[in-house]
Structures are given as C-alpha cells and as structure tokens.
Amino acid sequence: MLKRLNEAMDHIEAHLDKSIDVAELARIATTSEYHLRRLFSALAGMPLSEYVRRRRLTVAGADVLAGQHTLLDVAVRYGYTSGEAFARAFRAMHGVGPGEARRTGAALRSQPRMSFRLVVEGSSSMRYRVVEKGAFHLVGRKARVPLVHQGVNPAIAEFVRGIARDTSLRIHQLSDQEPEGIVSACDDLDPSRAEGTELDYWHAALAGTEPPDDLDALLVPAGTWAVFENTGPYPQALQELWRDVFTQWFPSNPYRSRPGPEILRTRPAAAGDTTDAALWIPVERAAPKGT
Prior knowledge:
By secondary structure, the chain is of the alpha+beta class. The protein is built from ten helices and twelve strands. A hairpin with a 6-residue loop joins β11 (262-268) and β12 (275-285). The protein is globular and about 65 Å long.
C-alpha cells in the first residue's frame, strides 16, 4: 500500500501544472477516493487538497522569484483563473503577495514533497529566501577537517580556539555584506558527504574588496543562494536544518546545488540557551522535468 501511495505522490508531482484527478490518484493507490482522502489526512495531518495546493504554491513561488514569466502567466500555469485569486492564495501561504516577493526577494514558505514510509516526511514547512549575490571574497582562516554529522566537531573547535583574538577582530572588520560578521563556511566537500570525509572549513568574513596577503582567501563567483533560517540548540538544530535542506527542500523545489561554499552565520538567540542560524547554500534553477 505504501508503494502505491508513493506512486500517487509521484503522479501529483508530475501534474502540479495540470489538472489532478483524485479518481486517478485513487486508481494508482488501488483504493477508493473516499478511503484515499481519509488515509492521506490521517497519515499526513492535512487534507489531500491542501497538500496539492501547498505544493503548487511552493513551485509557483520559485517561478515568481525567478522572474522569467509574468505573474499572470505563473497564476494560469498553476490553475488560478485570475491574478487576484493567485495573489490571495500566494499571500495566504507565503505571508507576502507575489509582486512584493518578486520585488524584494522576500522569504517564502516551502511545502516539502511527501513520501510515505513508517513515518511521514515533509509534513512541516521550511522558511527560505533566494538571494542573488555578486562575486565576493571569503577572507579569514582555513583548515582541512573531517566531516562530523552529529555533535560538536572537535577538529573545528580546536582550529577556532587556535585563532588569535586580534586576527578574529581583523576578519570581522573586513565584513562588508550579508551575511555580516564572522561566518563559518564549508567548501570542497566529498560528493558523498560521508562522515569522516574531509572538507575545507573557513572562519571568515565576506568582503567585496581585495583581501590582505596574510589571510586565506577564496574568490566566490556571482550566483544564486538559498537562505534558510532556524533557532534551536547548537549544534543539533543546525545539523538537522542542514539535513532537511538536502533531504526535503531540494527534492521538493525546482533548484539544485551548485559548486561553492556553504556558509553559516550563527548568533546567540534572544532568549534561552539557543542559537539563531542562517544557512546559505549555493543553488541554481533545475531544468524542468521532461526536458
């Protein structure tokens, strides 16, 4: 049954810009429309129609931010009969109208694609925004360290402790753009992202000016970045965010990762023993399915 339900989820994904017939979904899932709706709501915690609506608005949000089509064209593509109806639905999900989102690059909500196993994945939304950045230098100190999936990375902790206070102050003063201040960055990761493989870890700032000769520097080309934010205990909440970006957000949105450093800015949260984190991932638009 779970295999059939996942095939029905695949059918939804292939028809987000077309009419979705619940009777056809029920046929794929080998059940009745009534039982499909009941089963989906029980497993997913939301009606099937609401899931389809949120998935359409997730993909539509990416099209709005891309700016390649008029807002009316985007509205019609995803089944709305008028720009006003699309704007109301868009604002209800994303908290901002499509025109404002396109003008300001506002943060949008993403409904992850669902899959059914022993648990349901993708039943909560993620906040993200897409930012176009010009070329910049990552300037600071760099070390080659092993990848650790859970808990504090001792190699990184030791490396950061070894950076002199005046050096960190110099790095901080070089920051002249978002994300501001000292950031952490990971670059040159093994494609497998297996625990124990090595990566370049940066304790650095983003600068548009030429870097000084006595600091490590990496020229990062202009490109598109997806920015994800959360608040929680460090480092668990951050590691879970990183995991969810690659296991939920990428499969559910028309983007793919591109070469470049993955940048993290952390700050103590206003209350409690938690940390505010902003994760910047280099991305590019994925080719439409079937092309």
